[in-house]
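Supplementary material to the annual report.
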Amino acid sequence: SQTIHQWPATLVQPVGSPLSLECTVEGTSNPNLYWYRQAAGRGLQLLFYSVGIGQISSEVPQNLSASRPQDRQFILSSKKLLLSDSGFYLCAWKGPGSFSGNTIYFGEGSWLTVV
Amino acid sequence: GNSVTQMEGPVTLSEEAFLTINCTYTATGYPSLFWYVQYPGEGLQLLLKATKADDKGSNKGFEATYRKETTSFHLEKGSVQVSDSAVYFCALSPGGAGSYQLTFGKGTKLSVIP
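Predicted assembly:
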């Protein structure tokens, strides 16, 4: 069966520090991968998605970036965090094409607090 | 473009009450529709889905029917429990080339009191 893991689960970072959140998927090949952000009291915002290694699409311009160095690994980064980057970050995956019926599955989430 | 509108919360119900969370959508073509649930401090879990008109998704006592004529996918449960307290998200995935994306509603927070 397919599983998705992201880490760290919780982190507190000072303003201006770098960020790296990692996500891996097991049990599938060539998945579509996603990073979402959920700010306090707000809905889900799609940040990045990737349909293959090295292919990253950004939905929202910001000081965050994403990379996909391996087929099942997706990394969210920042060189200098802002207070407004605080939130709950969710990694997600979907099977390629029409596999899994367009269902997107989410990881456990990472709480980021920028202080 | 695609959009999802769901009723704003928070919704507070007593245990064993009937639940309805309204969701309507705007999309071209034939989208798939989903309900996700987020328990406190956790990620989102797929609750149920429907991929074509008149399909009924069901899970854990929750149901939702894909109504193309009213562009709706309302979530219902006949008797809620305290353990159902969570945030519920309605979402759609467009068919065809856009199927890699998911558009979410803003979420509805449900609190069930004993």
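Chain A has no helices and eleven strands.
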